[in-house]
Specification:
Largest sheet: 13 strands, antiparallel
CATH architecture: 4-Layer Sandwich
Strand content: 25-35%
Helix content: 25-40%
Radius of gyration: 21 Å
Oligomer: single chain
Distance between the termini: 59 Å
Number of strands: 27
Structural class: alpha+beta
Number of helices: 10
């Protein structure tokens, strides 16, 4: 097997030090573990200028798109990391999937954004925060001339300044009224009472308008809301994805599969005592534990279709993860990928994640499509990488903004069950994205 080339670079804890040189480029992508602010996540990965990119064709079946992704990956020969060196990525696919990719609408374009875009990348800068090292990884197919040009660019220290400073032209506004939210949740609870579903994830959208470069917005949000699955994707010169997601969707490492669903949320407290009390309240909540367990069971079923018989396990149940604005209840579902399946099979076959649909998944998605006032677009989709060895990691794109041709949007929601308190759910849907909106409004709202 071929071995990828590694060129050493000076380690910087903040990957923006290097991404500044390429953030303007077509297909520029940063997968950011938010070190040193966040204490979770080992690697950052950044790249740009994919060799090729694909998106779904109109009316193309999802299986056909998956097969084209697999064929795209096969254009790069399998290569391994140098012996005794752990790397997450040796060249391969990086891309995004919108929620609607596997929804009832089968839309291939959402307000001008492709329902998925997947690029083939033959290089990446990889930050290893555990080893305090930084490498330019190049696939063996890359010419020495290109390798040296990339190295020189990344070492130049000449960040490309944005042509126009980022600013908001007005505060974020909800797409629906509080009354519309209440009416929709009453309908959700009617469906649950009728036996259609056990749980339905309902969300609302908030939007503003902006001018300038969204990369500046990402840099500010990363400081205020560091998360282990943060990312920035420059889709094109009019569209960018800004994600501060805390949630892993599916990881595959040496054919071992893990999903880490989040279900259960509390706001952070104003004092240490209040904060501790809110965390304890979340962990003790029978309602939140029941909702979390529903999604764990759904994911056990989803992963079980692609994993070996008897390999599904739940090594963590009802664990606490805390972030600057919220506490979350998190569980872990694992399995061993069956011989006849690969990482793309389990990623796309299990998409979208059960934690952001409800249970049963298909009926929950039908009700979501009926009631929600807006497409979800990148919200509740996924950002992922899949390398030439079959190693993969992916997020669920919650706490995510889409900058799209002058409009910037984010979405907040939660899982609704029969005994959910509508006012509490309304406040939670705002709380989950309040820090994102307030950070941008405080720093970038025009006078």
């Amino acid at each position: 097997m071929l071995t990828c080339y590694l060129l050493p670079l000076t380690y910087h804890a903040d990957p923006a030090h290097y991404f500044q040189q390429v953030h303007h480029a077509a297909g520029a992508v940063l997968l950011d573990s938010s070190q040193p602010i966040s204490q979770r996540g080992r690697f950052d990965l950044l790249s740009a200028w994919p060799l090729a990119s694909i998106s779904p064709h109109p009316q193309e079946p999802l299986t056909a798109f998956r097969q084209r992704c697999q064929a795209l990956l096969q254009q790069l020969s399998t290569c391994q990391a140098p012996e005794a060196l752990e790397l997450p990525f040796t060249g391969g696919l990086i891309g995004y999937l919108t929620y609607e990719l596997n929804s009832l609408s089968q839309a291939t374009e959402l307000e001008g954004l492709a329902s998925a875009t997947v690029g083939l990348y033959d290089w990446a800068l990889i930050n290893d925060h555990q080893e305090k090292s930084c490498w330019l990884m190049c696939h063996p197919s890359m010419s020495v001339t290109r390798q040296q040009a990339l190295l020189a660019l990344l070492q130049s220290g000449h960040s490309r300044c944005s042509a126009e400073p980022f600013r908001l032209t007005h505060a974020f506004k909800p797409w629906i009224s509080a009354q519309r939210y209440q009416n929709d949740l009453e309908q959700v609870q009617n469906y649950i009472a009728a036996g259609d579903c056990y749980q339905i994830n309902y969300t609302q959208r908030f939007s503003s308008h902006y001018q300038g470069d969204p990369w500046q917005a990402y840099v500010s949000l990363r400081q205020e809301c560091p998360t282990p699955f943060a990312s920035f994707i420059r889709v094109n010169d009019q569209q960018a994805i800004i994600s501060l997601s805390p949630e892993r969707f599916i990881q595959v490492r040496q054919r071992q599969v893990e999903s880490r669903p989040i279900k259960g949320t509390r706001a952070r407290g104003a004092t240490a005592a209040e904060d501790q009390a809110l965390a304890a309240e979340l962990l003790a909540s029978s309602k939140d534990r029941a909702e979390n367990l529903m999604i764990v069971d759904l994911l056990r079923n989803d992963l079980g279709r692609y994993c070996g018989t008897g390999s599904i396990a739940v090594p963590e149940l009802f664990a606490l993860e805390s972030y600057p604005n919220v506490h979350h209840m998190v569980s872990s579902v694992t399995g061993t990928l069956a011989a006849e399946y690969d990482a793309l099979d389990v990623l796309i076959g299990s998409f979208p994640g059960g934690s952001i649909t409800g249970a049963p998944k298909r009926r929950a998605m039908q009700i979501i499509s009926e009631l929600e006032a807006s497409v979800r677009s990148i919200y509740c989709g996924s950002i992922f990488y899949l390398d030439s060895r079959g190693e993969m990691d992916s997020s669920i794109t919650i706490r995510t903004l889409l900058a799209n041709q002058g409009e910037i949007s984010c979405w907040g929601g939660g899982g609704i069950v029969y005994d959910s308190n509508i006012q509490d759910e309304y406040q939670e849907s705002i709380q989950k994205v309040r820090l994102l909106m307030s950070t941008l409004e405080q720093q970038y709202l025009a006078d």
